[in-house]
Fold this sequence. Notes:
Elements lengths: L5 E7 L1 H5 L7 E7 L2 E6 L3 E11 L5 E12 L6 E7 L4 E6 L2 E6 L11 E3 L1 E6 L11 E7 L4 E7 L4 E8 L6 E5 L2 E5 L3 E6 L5 E6 L9 E5 L2 E5 L4 E6 L9 E2 L6 E5 L2 E5 L3 E6 L5 E6 L5 E5 L2 E5 L4 E6 L2 H10 L3 H10 L6 H21 L3 H8 L1
Antiparallel strand pairs: 1-28, 2-3, 3-4, 4-5, 6-7, 7-8, 8-9, 10-11, 11-12, 12-13, 14-15, 15-16, 16-17, 18-19, 19-20, 20-21, 22-23, 23-24, 24-25, 26-27, 27-28
Helix pairs in contact: 2-3, 2-4, 3-4, 4-5
Amino acid sequence: xxxxxFKLVSAVERExxxxxxxxxxxxxxxxxxxxLYVGTNDCFxxxxxxxxxxxxxxKITFAATKQLHKYLGFKKPVSELKAASALTRLLVLCDNxxxxxxxxxxxxxxxxxxxxxxxxxxLNENPVSGDPFCVEVCxxxxxxxxxxxxxxxxxxxxxxxxxxxxEQPCAVAVDGYYLCLALTTQYIILNYNTxxxxxxxxxxxxxKRPIVKRIGRxxxxxxxxxxLGMFATVxxxxxxxxxxxxxxxxxxxxxxxxxVALDEEFITVHSMLDQQQKQTLPFKEGHILQDFEGKVIxxxxxxxxxxxxxxxxxxxxxxLAGRRVEEALVLAKGARRNIPKEKFQVMYKRILQQAGFIQxxxxxxxxxxxxxx
Length: 373
């Protein structure tokens, strides 16, 4: 049974990016506050300002204003973008090289600082250095079976550690000293400080695209075998039941209490609270799904869209209107971490009362009595 948890809203129309040039494709996106960056296959970066507008009827729309675009000078696609807002830097991966550019004017840093030999990279969102003017970057190196850790400052980079992995890594997420790695045949957790590693479960990266995503402190979300979205902590255990995805998931994102997944035809929404699938949105030709500070963005080759979450109170009321009392109560309890304490207590009492009346009307008197209590 479905819940309307998200609405799909267009953010950047194809004309804004490519006009009538059909050969231009979106390769990667990054969003930081109101700043949206798009990297394309013809080696350009586009910078847009996203303005969220709410109509009197409560309808949300986005207006994207193009700030500037910049050609990086290669004949290769821009394959990844990551913002380091504390440094006002954008890290740009193109042709196996990570270049530091200014977030506002997209000019490379004057020192020419860069990281060479990177296949892919990610930032450590739980850094270990304690330096606010530095970001920790983990790269999968072009050297076989090698991961490298760097400290990136405003105008220089410094290698911190190089780690050899048991097999070739193809995807990585970082939390503190812990690396969660998709290798050729399995997922592992590796502490790059101590060198201790732990096998998670087997997975064939040659058959399917692995997904490794940090979803919180010391916890990751992985695309497991049999179309399962599996949760794993840095201790190698799972504290949540898996969610059932389709076999060919391309990307996953988290917007508590939901896990959102993208495949070739749909965006699916599962609850982390009861693992049930709550919503399916048709979405063809999608190839990017990412969350940025709670904002979930999807993209095709030609356009960028935002998944706007409906207020949790509205979702709970919809469930109660459909007499789905258990689901409404599970969602209400899960909403506790998103709502201020006093407001939550008032809301929760009202929901228990409504749920009690629904159970009472269905002649479930014992359950109603508990809820009224």
